[in-house]
């Protein structure tokens, strides 16, 4: 019995089982051959509209800039400077918004606020009415 316990004829221990289909050097050669074939393929001709779409998809779609500044927006967000009494409050509100990852003043669904409260990060409401409403729901 030659080498029966050591991996078969002519091989020792861990060398057995490295056949061509199990990740040996043959599979690496096949992979290199496939990559070479893929690189040699001719590019698919695209129409100008398709090229423009691909460029926009990578670089971002252009949208017209529509600034929205209303009296309500200006009244809601004051400058966070310490020199005025309102500035102290605005500074604290801004710091709380940063701490709760709620800096962007856009609408966030109740589910988002609930997830933040349940995760322990907390959330920031714009006014006491929203806070009271969330307490009654949750």
Verbal overview:
- The protein is mainly α and 138 residues long.
- The chain has a domain at 77-137.
- The protein is 50% helix and 0% strand.
- The protein contains six helices and no strands.
- It has helices at 25-40, 48-59, 71-76, 85-99, 110-119, 128-137.
- The model has no long low-confidence stretch (mean pLDDT 71).
Task: Summarize the structure in short.
This protein is mainly alpha-helical. The chain is 50% helix and 0% strand. It has a domain at 77-137.
Task: Please render the helix and strand layout as text.
Blueprint: H1 25-40, H2 48-59, H3 71-76, H4 85-99, H5 110-119, H6 128-137
Sum up the overall morphology in one term: elongated
Oligomer: single chain
Q: Given the helix and strand composition, which structural class is it?
A: mainly alpha
Describe the main β-sheet briefly: none
How many DSSP E strands?
0
Please tell me how large the radius of gyration is.
32 Å
User: Helix amount, in percent?
Assistant: 40-55%
Mean pLDDT: 71
- Euclidean distance between termini CA atoms: 75 Å
H/E topology pattern:
HHHHHH
Uncertain stretches of 5 or more adjacent residues: none
Strand content: under 5%
Query: How many helices does DSSP assign?
Result: 6
């Amino acid at each position: 019995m030659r080498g029966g316990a050591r991996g078969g004829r002519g091989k020792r221990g861990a060398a057995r089982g490295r056949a061509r289909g199990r990740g040996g050097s043959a599979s690496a050669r096949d992979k290199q051959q496939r990559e070479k074939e893929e690189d040699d393929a001719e590019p698919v001709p695209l129409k100008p509209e398709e090229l423009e779409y691909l460029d926009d998809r990578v670089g971002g779609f252009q949208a017209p800039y529509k600034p929205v500044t209303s009296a309500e927006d200006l009244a809601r967000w004051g400058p966070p400077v310490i020199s005025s009494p309102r500035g102290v409050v605005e500074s604290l509100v801004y710091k709380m918004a940063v701490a709760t990852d709620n800096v962007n003043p856009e609408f966030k669904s109740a589910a988002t606020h609930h997830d933040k409260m349940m995760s322990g990060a907390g959330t920031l409401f714009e006014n006491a009415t929203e806070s009271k409403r969330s307490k009654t729901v949750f």
